[in-house]
Design brief:
Layout (H helix, E strand, L loop, with lengths): L1 H12 L4 E2 L2 H4 L16 E3 L4 H14 L3 E4 L18 E4 L6 E5 L4 E5 L4 H10 L2 E2 L12 H7 L6 H4 L2 H4 E7 L5 E4 L12 H5 L8 E8 L1 E2 L3 E9 L2 H15 L3 E8 H10 L13 E9 L3 H17 L5 E4 L3 H21 L6 E3 L2 H18 L4 E7 L4 E7 L6 H22 L15 H7 L2 H14 L14
Parallel strand pairs: 2-4, 3-4
Antiparallel strand pairs: 1-2, 5-6, 6-10, 7-11, 8-9, 8-10, 12-14, 12-15, 13-14, 13-17, 16-18, 17-18
Helix pairs in contact: 1-3, 9-11, 10-12, 13-14
Bound molecules: flavin-adenine dinucleotide (FAD), D-malate (MLT) and zinc ion.
Length: about 475
């Protein structure tokens, strides 16, 4: 049966686009963090939506599960197959055409396999901003961004990927093609199917194309790093910027001393330019459509006010694009420094800003008393209340051995604190296989049952990314 199925796949896609040899399959089988590794019957590389529809029909006929895959940069193991060797991977990388840039309606229609950075570049060529931005933008794909409802560094001003999306084209679990690519900004014709597929991590349908919003390119951007002593002051500073700069505020990222110490250990050329590596370093970006002088002056005025109010103790304003980029690189390299350091425990959480100070004080205290010497690598998109509250073992302790014993109780401690503060256990990275059980415990029974009802209705054979997000 398997060989007949593979023959039919090859007939549909052509020999080079169905990988069955172990060496050819290997690059698709392990996730970015090297936490999950699986096996696959084949890797399929379709080029058109019709080919994807045919693959899904073939899989439905043969009861073969499909793992959709974009850039494979996800953090929750969503794009990695299980160990049975019975699933196929459907990688979207060959579906990478930009179908249209519609200037009048400020929108772009593009295929799911487009690399995020290529989309930003294409938009910029036409004098537009495509605001989705994240550390993996050189390799993640727009289909993966939509499937995970990725966040990143511009959410404060432009929202999550969901907010940037005007329409989708999706192949359903039966292999039908739903064309929802009109891209209208207003369309109240019943249930919002687009929103159902965004963030569903390949469990409800395969996203093959999308219409995304474009924005005018800012004329000038100014980036600054400020030193600050407490989370309380950080939130007061955020509120000050929100009040004074309003929609010009496009970035507000937080990095703790411990995060930047780790960064400097692995990337010494990216040391914090602020003297003495303060308790909290905040990266702030303003973007303006008026003039360079206007935004620079505004930034200086707000910083002066912050100094006078005793909120900040030091600040460095980037004097040119290359310095601004170096500030962003420092922020984005924390993830890479963590990867260099070895396996770590990630917690991608949202805490309401009003509870953030209390959350950090209490959780840090509990972590440090129960796990002496532990390193809390806490950084994130503070403007959205999104922390990456990651845990590394004490210096000199083997990460794998530490995680083997402590992973579960540490997750439980942190997620109990998230629950107490009415936060979320997944802010932007999704659920995948990593948080399948945590989701069951934290989503709430009614919500979890509703999710299962949707999954059963849209994928009754359970062939789309089974045992990711929800198990039915
Ligand atoms: P993949 O990892 O290939 O897939 C992710 C999930 O989506 C899987 O469940 C997969 O089955 C499904 N999927 C993929 N394509 C499709 C499709 N076409 N149709 C249906 N389902 C599909 N994430 C953030 O949100 N914010 C960040 O700031 C951020 N920074 C990162 C920095 C680094 C250095 C790295 C490595 C990752 C970062 N991520 C971040 C995580 C990751 O990049 C995002 O989750 C991204 O959106 C995943 O895109 P991808 O193309 O790699 O998807
Ligand atoms: C980030 O904000 O840099 C990413 O989400 C990556 C991470 O959490 O490590
Ligand atoms: Zn993030």
């Amino acid at each position: 049966m398997r060989s007949e199925f593979l023959e039919e796949l090859i007939l549909t896609l052509g020999h080079p686009n169905v990988l069955v040899d172990d060496d050819d399959k290997a690059p698709y089988l392990t996730d970015w963090r090297k936490r999950y590794s699986g096996k696959a019957l084949a890797i399929t590389l379709p080029k058109t939506v019709q080919e994807i529809a045919q693959i899904v029909q073939l899989c439905a006929k043969n009861q073969i599960a499909i793992v959709p895959q974009g850039g494979h940069t996800g953090f929750c193991g969503g794009a990695t197959p299980d160990n049975t060797g019975a699933q196929i991977i459907l990688n979207l990388k060959r579906m990478n055409a930009i179908r249209e840039i519609d200037k009048a309606n400020q929108k772009i229609t593009l295929e799911a396999g487009c690399i995020l950075q290529a989309v930003q570049d294409k938009a910029a060529e036409q004098d537009f901003l495509f605001p989705l931005s994240l550390g993996a933008e050189g390799s993640c794909m727009i289909g993966g961004n939509l499937a995970t409802n990725a966040g990143g560094t511009n959410v404060l001003r432009y929202g999550n990927t969901r907010d940037l999306c005007l329409g989708l084209e999706v192949v359903t679990a039966k292999g039908e093609i739903w064309n929802g690519l009109k891209g209208l900004r207003k369309d109240n014709t019943g249930y919002d199917l687009r929103d159902l597929f965004i963030g569903s991590e390949g469990t409800l349908g395969i996203i093959t194309a999308a219409v995304m919003k474009l924005y005018p390119l800012p004329i000038s951007q100014w980036t600054t790093l400020v030193a600050i002593d407490s989370i309380e002051s950080t939130i007061a500073l955020l509120n000050l910027f929100q009040k004074r700069a309003t929609s010009l505020l496009t970035g507000f990222e937080m990095m703790t001393q411990e995060s930047l110490t780790l960064n400097e250990k692995h990337f010494p050329h990216m040391a914090n330019p602020l003297q003495g590596n303060p308790p909290y370093t905040i990266l702030i970006e303003l973007s303006d459509h008026e003039s360079e002088e206007h935004v620079r002056q505004l930034l200086e005025t707000i910083l002066e006010e912050a100094f006078e109010a005793g909120l900040i103790s030091d600040a460095v304003i980037a004097n040119n694009l290359s310095q601004a980029n170096s500030f962003w690189h420092m922020r984005e390299h924390i993830t890479l420094a963590q990867a260099e350091e070895g396996a770590n425990l990630k917690h991608d959480i949202t805490i309401p800003l009003s509870s953030l100070d209390n959350f950090i004080k209490e959780t840090d205290a509990q972590m440090r008393s129960q796990y002496p010497g532990v390193r809390i690598i806490n950084f994130g998109h503070l403007g959205d209340g999104n922390l990456h509250y990651n845990i590394a073992p004490p210096l000199g302790v083997d990460p794998k051995a530490f995680n083997l014993i402590h992973e579960k109780p540490i997750h439980e401690l942190i997620y109990a604190q998230v629950e107490r503060c009415h936060g979320s256990i997944s802010a932007e990275h999704g659920v995948g296989q990593l948080k399948l059980e945590d989701l069951r415990a934290h989503k709430g029974e009614v919500a979890h049952e509703l999710m299962k009802t949707l999954k059963r209705a849209l994928d009754p054979q359970n062939i789309l990314n089974p045992h990711k997000v929800v198990s039915i």
